[in-house]
Amino acid sequence: MTNGHPVLEAIDHTLEVKNRPPLNRASEWVSTVDHKKIGLMYIAYALVFLIIAGLQAVLMRIQLAVPNNHFVSPQVFNRLFTMHGTTMVFFVGMPILFGFGNYLVPLMIGARDMAFPRLNAFSFWISAFGGVLLYFSYLGGEGLYGAGSAPDVGWFAYAPLTAKAFSPGHSTDYWTLAILLSGIGTTGTALNIVTTTICMRCKGMKMSRLPLFVWLMLVTSGLVFVAVSPLTAAQIMLTLDRYLGAHFFDTQAGGSAVLWMHFFWIFGHPEVYILVLPAFGFVNEIIPVFSRKAIFGYPAMVAASVGIGFISLSVWAHHMFTVGLGPAGNTFFVFATMVISVPTGIKIFNWLATLWGGKIIFRVPMMFCVAFLFQFLIAGLTGIMLSAAPFNWQLSASYFVVAHFHYVLVGAILTSLFGAFYYWYPKAIGRMMSETLGRWHFWLFIIGFHLTFDFMHVPGLLGMPRRIYTYEAGRGWEWWNLIVGIGAAFQVAGILCFVWNLLRSYYHGEPAGNDPWDAWTLEWATPSPPPAYNFAVEPTVFSRRPLWDLKHPEDQDENYE
Amino acid sequence: MSVTLAIFLIVAGLLTYVLIRYRQRRQDSEREPAQIYGSNQIELSWTVIPILIVVMLFLSTTRVILETEAAPKPEGALDVTVIGHQFWWEYRYPKLGVVTANELHIPVSDPAKPTPTYLGLASADVSHSFWVPRLAGKTDLIPNRLNTMWVDPEAPGLYLGQCAQYCGTQHAKMLLRVYAQSPADFAEWIKQQQRPVAQDFSGNAAAAEGQTVFMHSACINCHSIAGTVATGRFGPDLTHLASRDTIGAGPIQNTPQNLRQWIADPNSIKPGVLMPSMHLDDHDLDVITAYLTKLH
Predict the structure, then answer these.
(1) Distance between CA atoms of A192 and A223, rounded to whole angstroms?
(2) Is the pTM for the entire model greater than 0.95?
(3) For chain B, how many structural domains are there in total?
């Protein structure tokens, strides 16, 4: 009985699609403009880079496990941390989150594709090309000068270390061009997501009814416009410096090293929010479903997200408290940085209130979200500590900072991403991921994460700076670094379970059905995997939780919103 | 710190309580729990309370910033210019006419009559950062820019630190040693550094020959020895090299054997160091080492 409900009609009239996305027909993938296939390609390509950059981290932890180690040379070590950071931010974090955005935004708003499908494919391929170009530097970076292969200037590449005088050869150029290309791709996708969200919503999908994940992708995409453009401009200026004799950052000719820092961090700090807002989005979708309750305080959540977006544009110089900006500059950025903890706190309290009084089901996606809540809380609090400039003078550029931002990037973003994988894999592939392997993955990874990143705070407090390839015994750093290294081994074991689970479930997973989690957003109203056209009939929605309305005709959400 | 710890304990405690209290139980019915959509009063309360905490934290932080950055400079302050190089530190005491490298000597400061040391921070090449954790927070040394910071240790002793801003291949071995000395010891050290360099090596043929080899080799293009033809500025000043405890910006002790190995092949100790091996033969290495160990 369809009850005359348009959503239900959409389901009824859709053919059952039982085929998994094919792995063996390359032509379908190369030529596709389907947002779902592009989304999956984004995710697959980011996973490959995640494994590469993860292995780079493992090599660094082996080198640092004991003092005075000769496992790798300083040159190799410096390339490792440069490539690790650059890869993780530009070729893992952004593509994987935009992959999820690409896949989910049209489905969640009841659209059949993105607004600009060809631009979408272009954005993906140009970003992918950027990643390949970065790694080609291992072969091509020697250039005519034989100096260096992969870039070794650090992921924020402070001037004038990137000037010709200090970085001969072409390794820095590969870095610059790779980031330039990634920036073009990211901007294209951001444009697409903004346009799609504004113009392609189905009937009844008012802005006030958008799933929170879509809201967060919208804010993220808006941030990309503002944040990535200065980075792109800076890369062009750096290339002009290196090849056309400009002097923007060339201090030997009167350029300014501080200018680069401003350019980089006005990108670099919003970038943290570009990465973390989609992660909030995952949590916003998963926690309500596994608490069996509507999200608490939807309007406050939207306001907090938009607020974080705006405030995040005015905090960049907290990366520069040691530059000598003077008391006025420092106090301004202390204030802006501390203020951002208010909307962030609102989010945490709203998640807490969503859990309150619910019926919490601890399946793997929810387990990762719970871990996210604890870890993000700690990351936020060490962030407040670092925002106090005098504290920062002591701990900036130390392992305390490294531990802090890995707590955000791994403890919050990657952890919620794993939850998102377990949650939406059934939708994309049509098969469930193994719950047993998922629990192994969860526990190994979480134990490893805490061994690594909890204990990494300590050597920072004891005076260990980041980016050193070795250290002397006797400074009290040895044991902490050894524990950190052991944690890395646990994380690797966890990731192996995850990758095995992804592959195994593709072939042997239980069939998922349309709506395995008894969820409420529109993507669960089509078959798994969804057909190319997503919805046979354009759905009409009347509330934020169309599938709740469908399942509870006696208790419609629209009565309460 | 205590504020954040308190917040952590409260929020994490609540979270744990909720997760245990509201987990799904076997005997639960199939019914969905009551749906609650939000509450403006509650939202308001957890917006306003954090704002108050933030304002409190901000005000106390501002006070420390002003106490540190806008503190008036006392009469008895000592001025030292610190110049960061890839991968070593140059120290100049402009009013005392002393130039040295890698090991900074400063007087301890009596709280009743403070004699802090004001460091003027500059860079000869790329950005560095001066960080001796037990003395003060870090301040960057940035080319084309002069930064300042001050330290006032109250206990004498050796304070260790190192460069905290990635500056190239050997960033890891750009170590800092700060010797805080009693005023008498510090005056003694200054007097010794102000002495003209040893010139007369009669009775020590090896050192005398070493001086000749040194002054006729490329060493002098990069190193200074006050009062001689060696006036290079690219590497550390060697005028009183033998008075230092370490060489190579900290990684090894200043012993004749280490010094000889360093001159023979700096890269074997500090790979990526900018000082090249001069391919001297064994004899030249011996006599140059003999000469340099006499530079007290």
Answers:
(1) 14
(2) no
(3) 2
**Pairing outcome for strands B78-85 and B117-123:** parallel
DSSP state of B131: -
Domain that residue A184 falls in: 6-559
Residues A432/A510, Cβ–Cβ less than 8 Å: yes
Are both B176 and B250 inside the same structural domain? Answer: no
Give the span between the Cα atoms of A324 and B119, in whole angstroms: 13
Work out the angle between the directed axes of helices A415-429 and A478-508 (0-180°, nearest 10).
Answer: 10
A70, A251, A308, A334: best mutation site toward chain B, by most B Cβ within 10 Å? A251
Q: Are residues B220 and B283 in the same domain?
A: yes
Task: Please answer whether residues A557 and A547 qualify as being in contact, where contact means their C-beta atoms are separated by less than 8 angstroms.
Answer: no
Write the CATH number for B158.
2.60.40.420
Q: Which of A297, A331, A350 lies nearest to residue B62, judging by beta carbons?
A: A331
Inspect the interface and report whether the beta carbons of A561 and B34 lie closer than 8 Å: no
In a domain, B102, yes or no: yes
User: Which residues, other chains included, contact A335 with Cβ-Cβ below 8 Å and sequence gap of 6+?
Assistant: B58
Report chain A residues whose CB lies below 8 A from the CB of B36: 293-294, 296, 353, 357
Determine the Cα–Cα distance for residues A264 and A251; give it in Å rounded to an integer: 17
Of B65, B162, B169, the CB nearest to A75: B169
The one-letter amino acid code at B71 reads A
B135 within some domain: yes
Query: Contacts of residue A467 in chain B, CB cutoff 8 Å?
Result: 166, 171-172
SS3 content of chain A, % helix, strand, coil (to 5): 70, 0, 30
Q: Do B144 and A251 count as a contact with CB atoms less than 8 A apart?
A: yes
Domain assignment of residue B57, yes or no: no
Which chain B residues touch A338 with a CB distance below 8 Å?
54, 57-58, 61
Alpha-carbon gap: B25 to the closest alpha carbon of chain A (Å): 8
Residue showing tokens 């440069």: A82
Measured in whole angstroms, how far is the alpha carbon of residue A18 from the centre of its chain? Answer: 30
Residues spanned by the domain of B223: 205-292
Residue with tokens 């033809």: B229
Residue A353: strand, helix, or coil:
helix
Domain membership flag for residue B281: yes
Indicate the SS3 state at residue B12: helix
Q: Residue A252 and residue B1: Cβ atoms within 8 Å?
A: no
Contact A334 B61 (CB under 8 A): yes
Q: Is A294 in contact with B144 (Cβ distance < 8 A)?
A: no
Specify whether the CB–CB gap between B87 and B173 falls below 8 A: yes
Residue of B53, B129, B138 to mutate when probing chain A, most A C-beta within 10 A? B138
Report, in this order, helix, strand and coil percent for chain B, each rounded to 5.
35, 20, 45
Residue after which a domain boundary falls, among B130, B157, B186: B186
Per-residue pLDDT of chain A (561 residues; tens, 9 = 90+): 344 455 555 554 445 555 778 777 788 888 899 999 999 999 999 999 999 999 999 999 999 999 999 999 999 999 999 999 999 999 999 999 999 999 999 999 999 999 999 999 999 999 999 999 999 888 776 655 555 578 899 999 998 999 989 988 888 999 999 999 999 999 999 999 999 999 999 999 999 999 999 999 999 999 999 999 999 999 999 999 999 999 999 998 999 999 999 999 999 999 999 999 999 999 999 999 999 999 999 999 999 999 999 999 999 999 999 998 888 889 999 999 999 999 999 999 999 999 998 899 999 999 999 999 999 999 989 988 898 888 888 899 999 999 999 999 999 999 999 999 999 999 999 999 999 999 999 999 999 999 999 999 999 999 999 999 999 998 899 999 999 999 999 999 999 999 999 999 999 999 988 899 999 999 999 988 998 899 888 899 998 998 888 888 888 877 777
- In this complex, do A345 and B50 lie within 8 Å of one another by their Cβ atoms? yes
> Dmax over Cα atoms in chain A, in whole Å?
77
